[in-house]
Amino acid sequence: GIGITPFRALLKDIHARDDRRPVTLIYGGKGGEYLFREEIDEIAEAMDSVQVHYVEGRKAIASTLMEAQTEHGNNARYYLSGLPVMIKAYEAQLLEGGVSKNRLMYD
What we know:
This protein is α/β, with parallel strands linked by helices. It has helices spanning 5-16, 37-46, 58-72, 84-96; strands spanning 23-29, 50-56, 78-80, 104-106.
């Protein structure tokens, strides 16, 4: 599958259950194309607890992830999905930044 699929399912589930826990989605894409963007935006608009950041390129993803990591640290769970090389890079970034391995989840 593609990296966004598990996040789409998660967002649909929390929306259906009206779960108001904060969720920040960092969605990396190419060429301004983001699959399911309309559906994701509808959920984010309906739920003020959902924030979505559309970014392009690995540097932009890493920078946005660092912002979230700085803000939330070990008070959040980090769900990583995508190409294995990217997951390893972002995992290393989070661990080097002080996030505990038990706060990381993978697809």
